[in-house]
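Example (one chain per record):
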Amino acid sequence: MALPGFCFSSRISLVAIVMAFSVPCRSAANKELAIVDAGVEQSEDAPFVASDYQFLPGDFLYFTFSIGGFGIDSEREGEVRKIALTYQAVPQDAAGIPLTPPATGEVKTQLHPEDKNWMPKRRASFLIPSFVAAGDYHVHVSVTDVVTKHEVSADIPFHIGGVHIKASPSITVENFRFLRKEDDRTPLEIPAYSPGDKVYALFEMTGYKVGPDKQYHLAYGLTVLGPDGKPFLQQPQAAELDSNSYYPAQFVPGNLVLTTAPNSATGQYVVVLTVKDLLGQQSYEAKYAFSLER
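Predicted structure:
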């Protein structure tokens, strides 16, 4: 019997009850999806590196992060609960260009009552390219919660040391330095040698055009002028370099090895270095002096 002012329908109530039990329960373990405890390491599961630590080209960079605030999917309250996450992590330069292919994955698992404080932890490692310049970089990590359709991302900074390069709109040579020995790391303040010595030099080429497959094509040659101003040595085609990589090389290294004779004249010698960008159809010439002294 209906009460005055009220309309009751047993059919509608039954449908509402059935719908309530048929809709999956989706809830969040915390208030919002979050990337937590993220950082870079020198080796897997090592402590996070200090804020001023510098990786070097050719090093492996290890990255770790955890995910909190994910959604939970269950057919009915109290039954098996499930989570579903996807993620991607990739080291990038300041312009957001990836240094390596990304590390991707997913987290699909069931949760039990004792897992209420559990957070998935993931690891990735990346090989830093050889011809990447010193500077500030970051690992960009993003996570998508398949259950709640929420997304979150973060940038974890790290630093690369090694060769410092100034951006150039055209082909140029940077960091030219003379060395006493081939494997020396410290350049000579005064490039002076004795007759009969080998003269070593290193430099970096930058500002060249990069092709559609991130390739470069460079060549360099040299002429060495003696104290009398006449050619002491000529190598118009000292080297030709052609390669490509996943990340466009920020610089390409070059080297010179000049052999002097014991009876070479003393005095100042001038290296005339010519670098050619064969893709960009441009060239650059520079002069560097050293001396032979007895």
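Caption: Helices lie at 10-22.
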